[in-house]
Write a structure and sequence with these properties.
alpha/beta, elongated
């Protein structure tokens, strides 16, 4: 086959179309058997097994995670990574559509392996566990999985057709207060009420929230408030989720939470301790030049992607950590109407609907074609890296 962009694109679309039934079967199998953060053993085995059977070189237990894997077609640079998410939400199953993300990445990787045969660099399918809580991609970034990659590509099902993802930075912290136990009537003056300190921190955080930027917020819950009503609590603990539009703003907000906790401790005579309890998700930096390519390819299926609505944020994802390392895309393609929402039972049903099947095929084709563009077009790679190094999406 003559290696021309149009010829490669046509071959990739045909290859994905020929696999459409098998890819949908994979998506339905994942949907019917949801597994959760770092425990996606059957999903990882299914996906890595499909890739290995097709002739890609599979590595399992990547970055010290038993449910992470890579599957490589070809060698060396240029190199493009296709990201496969497959964890589910406790109690809601695949209410974020990760079954479709995994199947689309699988289809794109298999099509590229068949059409290009590893002759133009590397295609790396990356199994990324625990996006919903745990941050598998962040762990993989730190382990060097993306060190020799020129672009990282994925799509996400949603309720909008948006070319890029307005995803914020987020992290969670534990704040504990140590006081002194006492009987509230027997020796009340001897007690130092740790729960009162924690309640005061909630009040301070509420006041702080009124002057934060629109995309920033702190949301907390009480995780320990004492052991008995007739004992002044000597220890109380809360868990706080922090979000901000950028990673730098999140770092500033984190510092503010610590200052608030220390101030409350001084005011109440308690001792505060603050500890990060999750992987930090960085904000997403979109590669516009690659997102435009994906949007052009998916338009062949009658799907028109637009810029996101200004001021609307759609949560956070560990794709943000990847996007700080290499040019990356994370477009949204709707599988239900805009009056719906992910993380709902309705969205879980939509992830196994006829519309989802159509989107799966279209997204896999667009991912494959965009990946081929990265591998075959040196000017595109140069432009993507130039914009990335200039701080695009910061």
């Amino acid at each position: 086959m003559t290696v021309t962009p149009d010829g490669v694109h046509d071959a990739l679309r045909a290859e994905v179309a020929g696999r459409a039934g098998a890819l949908w079967d994979v998506a339905l199998r994942l949907h019917a058997d949801p597994e959760y953060a770092f425990a996606e053993h059957r999903a990882a085995a299914l996906l890595s097994g499909e890739l290995e059977s097709a002739g890609l070189t599979v590595r399992r237990d990547v970055a010290g995670m038993p449910t992470a894997f890579t599957a490589r077609s070809g060698r060396g640079r240029p190199a493009v990574a296709l990201l496969l998410e497959y964890d589910a939400l406790p109690g809601l199953g695949h209410a974020c559509g990760h079954n479709l993300i995994a199947a689309a990445g699988l289809g794109a990787a298999l099509a590229l392996h068949t059409v290009l045969g590893g002759a133009h660099g590397s295609v790396l399918a990356v199994g990324t566990p625990a996006e919903e809580g745990g941050g598998g991609k962040a762990v993989e970034v730190e382990a060097g999985v993306f060190d020799d990659v020129d672009a990282a590509l994925m799509f996400h099902p949603g309720v909008h057709d948006w070319a890029r993802a307005p995803l914020t930075a987020q992290v969670q912290y534990r704040v504990g207060f140590h006081g002194r136990a006492a009987h509230p009537t027997g020796n009340p003056t001897e007690g130092i009420d740790a729960l009162a300190a924690l309640v005061e921190l909630f009040n301070v955080v509420y006041a702080l929230g009124r002057r934060l930027p629109p995309a920033s917020h702190v949301q907390g819950i009480v995780t320990h408030g004492g052991t008995a009503t007739n004992i002044v609590p000597d220890y109380a603990e809360g868990r706080f989720g922090l979000r901000a539009a950028t990673t730098a703003e999140l770092d500033a907000l984190t510092a503010q939470l610590g200052e608030c906790a220390e101030g409350v401790a001084r005011a109440t005579g308690t001792r505060a301790e603050t500890e990060r309890v999750t992987v930090r998700y960085d904000h997403f930096r979109d590669s516009a030049v690659l997102s435009e390519r994906f949007a052009g390819h998916v338009s062949r299926a009658g799907i028109t992607l637009t810029p996101p609505v200004p001021g609307v944020q759609l949560g956070s994802s560990d794709i943000g950590n990847v996007s700080g390392k290499v040019p990356a895309i994370h477009p949204f393609v709707a599988i239900m109407d805009a009056d719906g929402s992910d993380h709902t039972p309705e969205f879980a049903r939509a992830a196994a609907s006829p519309r989802a099947r159509t989107v799966l095929t279209a997204a896999a084709q667009a991912l494959a074609c965009t990946a081929a563009d990265v591998l075959l077009d040196a000017d595109l790679r140069t432009a993507a890296w130039a914009r990335h190094r200039e701080g695009e999406g910061t």
